[in-house]
Amino acid sequence: MTPTEIHERLKARFGEAVGPLSEPKIDPFAVVKGEAIVEVARFLRDQPGLELDFCEDLTAVDWPKRNVVEVVYHLFSYRHRHGIVLKVEADRAAPRVPSVEGVWKAANWMEREVYDLFGVEFPGHPDLRRVLLPDDWEGHPLRKDYQEAGGWHGIGNVRESPLVELRRLDEVAMAEAAKNRPPPPPPPAPAAPAPAAPAAPKA
Prior knowledge:
The structure is a single chain. The protein has four helices and five strands; from the N terminus they run αββαβββαα. By secondary structure, the chain is α+β, with helices and mostly antiparallel strands.
């Protein structure tokens, strides 16, 4: 099935809970209301002819000017070799989207990553905690207004270019080699001047 045909099945079943399909592009998408996402996901997985059994990716996009964080679902059916992209728009001030971990187990760590880096809560997730950063890390680094806090527990988060360090090591090695190199031999003594030629006899 094409994304358009999958979308038509969703509209017929869920009506206004599923928005229109986007303009034709590589991955056309539809926006789904957050409260319907679990039911929509289960329908897509279980409905004969659809059977989107693979949550290929679950990520997010931060839109500060729209005050929205989009949670994005890339879904695929191995049986039918078709797929669709869905989005849920969450309030950026306190983003919450029901977990689909109960539909696709692959969503477990993906939702944790979105929680970690974007701050989206997923009610119903069995173990929602950070997966990349320490538990006491402040903020969510993929928010577009995220500000670096200067490191974590004394560990800096600024690194100079490795080329700078390599050049420094080269300079140290060159200085050490110069220090251990034997001094050059003294220059040879200047040659003695040649004796003056005898004067010619007078006639």
